[in-house]
Every structure is written in C-alpha cells, then in structure tokens.
C-alpha cells in the first residue's frame, strides 16, 4: 500500500491518514523480508506514530533477528528503539493457536 502511494504520488495523503488511525497492527513482521526502500518506508510510517497513537506488532522473531529482515543495522536499531520506548512488550511462548486448532481437528477425525 505504501509503495503504491509513492508510485502514484499520494504518499503524503497516506501518511496523514496513517497518523490519524487510533490503532495500526503489523501482523507477522519478519515473515517476508524488506528491501532497503521498503524498510525505510516502514520506519518512516511507524515513526510518524511514535508517542502519539497505538501500534501493535506481532512477530516470531526476537529483536536480535530483525536486522535479517530489514537488512540495515542502523535502521533496525532506530526502529526497535522507537517501538520500545514507552511500550508494553508481551512475550508469548508455547504452542501456537493455529497448531492447537489443527491438532484438535486431526484428533477428532
């Protein structure tokens, strides 16, 4: 969505809307890697919300592995710093909900 807005030269309009959302959820961050431009756009958009609005990020990766996905050590460090400032970190362990549901289905057959 961000890339398309940049291509269509409507990026600033998207940024204004993005800043106004009460909550933004980035689900499964790290599932797909970012190229340099995409990582920078993600950083810029999430930085717009820092200290203003709520953002939830889900990931299976610890912060120490985010650099593998974002491919820029400095940008990664700055993003983690902004996201963690005045944040609640919830570390969930155990079997995933999807795996539990799949096991229930298999066991009921």
Question: Would you kindly provide a written description of the structure presented here, covering whatever features stand out?
Answer:
- This protein has 109 residues and is mostly helical.
- Helix 3 runs parallel beside helix 5.
- The protein has a two-stranded parallel sheet with strand order 1-2.
- Helix 3 links the parallel strand 1 (23-26) and strand 2.
- It has helices spanning 2-7, 11-20, 36-49, 66-70, 73-84, 97-107; strands at 23-26, 54-57.
Q: Cα-atom Rg, whole angstroms?
A: 17 Å
Oligomer: single chain
Instruction: Outline the low-pLDDT stretches.
Output: none
Let me know the largest β-sheet.
Answer: 2 strands, parallel
Q: In what range is the share of β-strand residues? A: 5-15%
Number of contiguous helices: 6
Which percent range fits the helix content? 40-55%
The overall strand count is 2
Shape: globular
Physical arrangement of strands within the biggest beta sheet: 1-2
Q: On the 0-100 scale, what is the average pLDDT?
A: 88
Give the SSE string: HHEHEHHH
Task: Give the gist of this structure.
The protein has helices spanning 2-7, 11-20, 36-49, 66-70, 73-84, 97-107, and strands at 23-26, 54-57. With 109 residues, it is mainly α. Helix 3 (36-49) links the parallel strand 1 (23-26) and strand 2.
Please render the helix and strand layout as text.
Elements: H1 2-7, H2 11-20, E1 23-26, H3 36-49, E2 54-57, H4 66-70, H5 73-84, H6 97-107
